[in-house]
Amino acid sequence: MSGSDASAARARRNVVVTAAIAGLAGLLFGYDTGVIAGALLLITPEFGLGSLAAGMVVGAVPVGAVGGAWIASTRADRYGRRRLIVASAVAFIAGAVISAVSESASELVLARILIGIGIGVASAVAPVYISEIAPPSIRGRLVTFFQLSVTVGILVAYLVGLAFADADEGWRWMLGLAAVPAVGLGLGILRLPPSPRWLMMKGDESAALESMRRIRPPDENAIVLELQEIRTSMGEDTGSWKDLLRPSVRAALMVGVGLAILQQITGVNTVIYYAPTIIQEAGIDSASSAIFASLGVGVINVVMTVVALQLLDRTGRRTLLFIGVSGMSFSLFLLGLAFLGDTGTVTSVIAVFSLMLFVSSFAISLGPIFWLLNAEIYPLEVRSRAASVGTMTNWLFNFVVSLTFLSLIDLLTQTGAFWLYGLIGLVTLWFCWRFVPETKGRSLSQIDAIFRRRARK
To answer: pLDDT confidence of 320, banded at 50, 70, 90?
Structure first.
């Protein structure tokens, strides 16, 4: 290998490592999302929670995440992407420790709101940070590192839940152990370079050049040209909230906010949060057996996200959306069908299969692609604000779905609830066909041009 080839390989490796460490934010996101699935089986009888109170314990995280995304929207451009990710790690640590020592449901809800703030900041900032350091040719894969980390976090949460399912007050260990990877995120992110695009936005071109040299092959001309492209795409001023009303930004926000809503109301977090509960209601009685069965859901989630990692920059975003959302709708109709009969072995097998098919389909489509598009479709000068709007919307509807799921089952039965989500999946297919552009292989500036052309029509 020549010297230039070795340098290029080293630069590519640096980008991947940078994205992987930033993706630890996704690990914590996934862990704190998934761990409540097993912990809730133990918390509910200990605190005597009804359906609404249990929904509040689950829904506290998305409530905090809406606030965290708002903080990110107003502070990411001022303080930078890295500092906000460090702040999210601190919130994770504090929330995990307080959760572990909570003595009442109200204390636990407050602690999980704090965790949610950390998740909201991380989920708004980390994908944007990754998209701003990644070359166009591998941006899809690198941003999907964030979603892959989310799925790994969910799997780890299920494993921890299984380990402590029969322990005395095992839920405290389940919630408290989130502090460990949070420390790794806080320390690891401090070693990474600032976003060159953010540095350019702050007017520090020399620092942007140094940062770019750490994450690009040693081709000075190419680096200078990329910085020039960033400068051109920025315009003369940094953006404000008012700029979100520009026609081209509105067109992009329709896609980002629309996918944010649809990702949630197709019911994914009913599966993540309530998988053991769903499996118990299908006929598997013990908490440890239900958590063990849901472990398969977590494994499938990781495996299929790795598949998506390989396909996003090869197959394209739209194709994967069509395939995945179709599979989601089919599996939801099948899951609803399983609950029409008496609970038993057959019902349990169909329920577990349906959950796995649903998660597989989600993992190659709405799971990674919402976060990817929400990080890449907005102009640089308003990217933090616009991405935070999409993230806040996502978490708001996450809260609505998680809070209402058990009550929705009481109203419509399991069959009615899952069939409703399946119908929403069909609406999602139409939305993707009508509004979502293909961004595979395009630079962030070229993506911006797509929405500028749409706004002129």
So the answer is: very high
- Which residues 6+ apart lie within 8 Å of 376 measured at CB? 131, 139, 143, 439, 444, 447
Give the number of residues written for the chain: 457
- CATH label of the domain that carries residue 272: 1.20.1250.20
Nearest residue to 255 (alpha-carbon basis) of 374, 396, 398: 374
Is residue 32, in this structure, part of any structural domain at all?
yes
Q: What angle do CA 333, 286, 283 make, to 5 degrees?
A: 35
Q: Do 85 and 125 meet the contact criterion of CB atoms below 8 Å apart?
A: yes
Q: Rounded distance, CA 413 to CA 405, Å?
A: 10
- Residue 371 included in any domain: yes
Domain count, the chain: 1
Task: Give 129-179 as a DSSP string.
Answer: HHHHHS-GGGHHHHHHHHHHHHHHHHHHHHHHHHHHTTSTTHHHHHHHTTH
Token digits for 318? Answer: 């739209």
Q: Name the band, by pLDDT with cuts 50, 70 and 90, for residue 219.
A: confident
Residues of the domain holding 403: 3-192+235-456
Most confident listed range (49-58, 84-93, 344-353, 405-414): 84-93
| Cβ 35 vs Cβ 174: under 8 Å | yes
Separation of alpha carbons 92 and 96, rounded Å: 6
Q: Is residue 215 part of a domain?
A: no
What's this model's pTM, rounded to 2 decimal places? 0.72
Rounded to 10 degrees, the C-alpha dihedral 349/350/354/355 comes to -40
b/e per residue, 245-282, with b = 16+ CB within 10 A? Answer: ebebbebbbebbbbbbbbbbbbbbbbbbbbbbbbbbbb
Q: Determine, yes or no, domain membership for 199.
A: no
Q: Tell me: pLDDT of 126 over 70.
A: yes
Residue 121 and residue 388 in contact, taking contact as beta carbons nearer than 8 Å: no
pLDDT at 236: 46
Residue 431 confidence (pLDDT) above 80? yes
